[in-house]
Amino acid sequence: MNPPIIIGALALIVAVCHEASWWKRRHWKRLPGRVVDVIKQTRRNKTSYHPVITYSSEKGDRQFTSKYGGNTHPKIGDAVVVMVSPDGESEEHYSISNRWFISGIAFCIGIVLLGKGIIEL
């Protein structure tokens, strides 16, 4: 067993799964939203801040808490982009970091570790 190959392959699987989840959202509408509050979550002694976002849709004004959080405190009143499913029942906070960070990091780690594992064979 070659650990770099195994971990590299798992990282690439994570990247592909993350991309697939965003690919499924390609037909979702992009609407303007605004941060109205911030929820502080602490897990394993690490704090993250999740924006509470409001936006207007065909079904009226809606509000949700983003599942994407970070170690920086979003500013109340900040403009954001919200992606809304065609049926209007699901929404997602869209940003460049939410969209590309997980895929990009997982892909890079996967390629590096696979390369290292192949060289060590």
What can you tell me about this protein's structure?
The chain has 121 residues and is of the alpha+beta class. The protein has two helices and five strands. The protein has one domain. Helices cover 39% and strands 36% of the residues. A five-stranded antiparallel sheet has the order 3-2-1-4-5. The N and C termini lie close together (10 Å).
Compile the SSE list and pairings:
Layout: H1 3-24, E1 29-43, E2 46-57, E3 60-65, E4 79-84, E5 91-94, H2 96-120
Antiparallel strand pairs: 1-2, 1-4, 2-3, 4-5
Parts with pLDDT < 50 across at least 5 consecutive residues: none
Strand content: 35-45%
Which structural class do you get from the secondary structure elements? alpha+beta
Strand order of the largest sheet: 3-2-1-4-5
In sequence order, what are the helices and strands, one letter per element?
A: HEEEEEH
Q: What sort of overall outline do the alpha carbons produce when their principal axes are compared?
A: elongated
The main sheet comes to:
5 strands, antiparallel
Helices, by number, come to 2
Cα radius of gyration in angstroms: 18 Å
How many strand elements? 5
Transmembrane segments: 6-23, 100-119
Keywords: Membrane, Transmembrane, Transmembrane helix
Organism: Rubritalea squalenifaciens DSM 18772
Protein name: DUF3592 domain-containing protein
